[in-house]
Write a structure and sequence with these properties.
The protein is α/β, with parallel strands linked by helices. It has one domain: Rossmann fold (3-Layer(aba) Sandwich). Strand 12 and strand 13 form a beta hairpin.
Length: 262
């Protein structure tokens, strides 16, 4: 069973309906026990970053959500549910996210219509399991005004050096430069996690799988990570449940990951 987290932030019914359409049982829930008992957890949503974090905290869902993100089960973040995985967001003033993925959420640059709403191409190098059987350049449906900036270098054959290339989003290490925020330096977080992952790899620990973060890319005034995979954590800026053929294929791929226990 897949648990879809209900924290008062949109598109819950369409996500549950899409899973039902592909024959995968899913339940919408605010019960932390249901999250703990689920085979996989989905965090969807749209709206404001800070309000979403406040709602998760008010409903007492943050501890169960963090357990769902410990790498022991498949996890899927969608749209706002993707952005909440990052360290901080500058939306309506800087605020803290779940800090599972070091980086920052920033406003899309001026020059293009905002929000980014509609279909856009997503490029990938065949590395993400969510994209199994989906061609690079397939179109997915986006609705967002902010985008994620992954800190440091992203491991991907498609974009060597990750976010340090020209014409891509600036390195997210700068998001912590304002000491008033109290946010840790993103590179320090990466270094610490890398060291921990190396130690786990030597000991055979479960975190050895999450060393590499892989990404798929979209361009809308800036090139950004439209989807990521790190260990068993998967997340997309676009809405697979609204993306018709390729979106359903992506949810089928996630269901296959859940059933396989990978």
């Amino acid at each position: 069973m897949i648990a879809v987290i209900d924290y008062g932030r949109g598109n819950l019914g369409s996500v549950e309906k899409a899973f039902r359409r592909i024959g995968m049982p899913a339940v919408i829930t605010q019960d932390p026990r249901s999250l703990d008992e689920a085979d996989a957890v989905v965090l969807p949503g749209d709206g404001a970053f800070h309000d979403a974090m406040a709602n998760l905290d008010r409903l007492g869902l943050v501890p169960a959500l963090r357990r769902a993100l410990d790498g022991s089960r498949p996890f899927l973040g969608i749209c706002l549910g993707y952005q909440l995985l990052f360290s901080t967001s500058e939306e309506f003033g800087e605020g803290r996210g779940l800090d599972v993925v070091p980086g920052a959420v920033r406003r899309l640059p001026a020059g293009r219509k905002i929000p980014h709403m509609g279909w856009n191409r997503v490029e990938h190098a065949g590395e993400l399991r969510l994209f199994d059987g989906i061609p690079s350049g397939a179109h997915f449906y986006f609705v967002h005004s902010f985008y994620p900036v992954v800190a440091g270098t992203v491991s991907t054959a498609l974009t060597e050096g990750g976010l340090r290339e020209e014409r891509v989003a600036p390195d997210a290490r700068s998001f912590a430069s304002d000491t008033r925020s109290g946010a840790p330096d993103a590179q320090s977080v990466l270094d610490a996690r890398s060291a921990a992952s190396d130690a786990d790899a030597r000991s055979g620990g479960p975190d050895a799988r999450s060393v590499a973060l892989r990404a798929a890319w979209c361009e809308y005034g800036v090139k950004f990570a439209a989807a990521i995979e790190v260990g068993r954590i998967h997340a997309t800026q676009f809405h697979p449940e609204k993306s018709q053929r390729w979106g359903l294929r992506m949810l089928e791929n996630f269901a296959a990951i859940v059933k396989s226990g990978r």
